[in-house]
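Good morning,

Both structures are done.
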Amino acid sequence: PAPLGKSAGVVRPIEITTRTEAGGQWFRFRYADIARGEILMGGAPKRPHLERLVVRLGRDQRVPPAGPRSWVGGSVSRLALSEWQRFLDGLPVTRPQGRPAWPRPLIDIEVADFEALGLHLGHLGIRASRAADAWTVALDGEWARGTLRVPHSPQFPIEARFERLTLLRDGSAGPLETP
């Protein structure tokens, strides 16, 4: 999905470098001007596991926090949550048999045009983290400020608490009308 996707005829360079240290195998990558990051794989060569993942979107220069082992930060022009739902839901939250759990990601991005559930929320700062049972998402922008709790199971409702929320229908020039 955008901003990582591209049309078939578009060429975007991908650069990958590796380095081995006592702590494990480092992989550094760059995907055009869209994303760059580093991955540290630890453990025995036949049983590697992810120790650290850092992804910077756009030209972000921030230093990721020391605590989370998995961090995605930066800025993007457009993000449609519906396009990313399948990918985000596919991240494992339980530990594979005999392996450490995938580090739960911390997401800290600025989005110029954010869309969710067919609604546009304009420019937003988004900070999200994934726990065993749900995503917790903090939104902060001109049209929305609040938090969402999005359970992994569709059997449970999404909980929303907003100080401010202005909704625009997809393709609409004005606020969403409510009865």
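Second structure follows.
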Amino acid sequence: NGLVVQGQAFSATQAGMYSVFCSVSGHPEAADESPAAVQVLAGLPHKWSVSFPLQASDCFWQGASLPFDVFVFDFWDNRVTDATVELHATPAAGIVQDAAGGWALTAEADYDITLEVTSPQDPQSTIAPFAASLRVDSTPPVFALAMPSTGSMLVMPDGQTDVAIQGTVTDGLSSLVALS
């Protein structure tokens, strides 16, 4: 469990609560009946795990929360729950911290984001910033038909099934790849 006893000293590498019993060698009746409780806390951040299930084609809805899972560990693999993790985004507006401590997307844009641990770290830390790019696009393309005009009646000759359409399609954020 990570507890090392050397003579009258002890050390621990696994975070948790420990009970320290004191006794006199050769005199079991002189043992401590109310042991001291020692709490071992996690050390400084040494490494982390960032899970962000993002595909190259993913697009997020405005108002959604970013699906990050961030876990920070010390040198001995204890989870560090009080590490400060900050998110930086370009553009800066549009991603805000939500009530649950995560981040929510409040504006449509293409974002470059970086997560980093900003609290003090273990001198041998292997933590590098995590970077990703994402798109927030909640509005569909806009179709403007020029022909046939709205409300017009189409009369099709026998056997003809195709209708010619003229107009424009635009999208405020995404470039259009194909129309069919």
